[in-house]
Amino acid sequence: MLDFLRKLLFGNEIEELKQTIDNQKRQIKELEAKLEKLKSTTDTQTKELSKKQTKHLDKVHSEKYKKIHAQILQCTQGLYVDDYKKEDGSWNIYKISKDTKISRQTVRKHLENS
Fold first, then answer.
1. Helices and strands counted in the chain (H then E)
2. Which 8-state DSSP code applies to residue 82?
3. Contact yes or no for 71/100 (Cβ under 8 A)
4. What distance in Å separates the CA atoms of residue 99 and residue 93, rounded to the nearest whole number?
5. Residues with Cβ < 8 Å from 108, sequence gap 6 or more?
6. pLDDT of residue 79
């Protein structure tokens, strides 16, 4: 009996509120789906950007390595080879690093690898 009276007094309002709640639930589901799509798109874009950055850094490091290696080869195979050799026949790493403005560790590493 109480339900019957409620429907008589508030029937239209209750139905409208139920429809409003259902509409809001649908909207929430749609927004959640859009959010998931945006997340996956963002993840994909982030991965692509990371790959591009890695490629660029590899290229920059490769070019830098080649430039440094060429400078050291110029000292060790150029006209002034005798200026960079010590009396005992080993390389004067300090002088090569000073003239090429490359760190002694880098010069040592390149001389060991070549």
1. 3, 0
2. G
3. yes
4. 10
5. 93
6. 81
Range of the domain at 52: 2-113
Residue whose entry in the numeric block shows the structure tokens 């927004």: 31
Q: What is the pLDDT of residues 30-41, one digit of tens each?
A: 999 999 998 888
Q: Which whole-number Å values give the CA distances from 101 to 37, 40, 46, 79, 81, in the listed order?
A: 52, 47, 38, 19, 17
The residue among 70, 77, 65 whose CA lies nearest residue 91 is 77
Residue-wise burial string across 23-36, b where 16 or more C-beta atoms lie within 10 A, e elsewhere = eeeeeeeeeeeeee
Measure Cα distances from 103 to 50, 62, 83, 108 in Å: 30, 17, 18, 9
C-alpha 83/C-alpha 95 separation (Å) is 9
pLDDT in tens, 49-82: 999 999 999 999 999 999 999 999 888 888 888 8
**Number of domain units in the chain:** 1
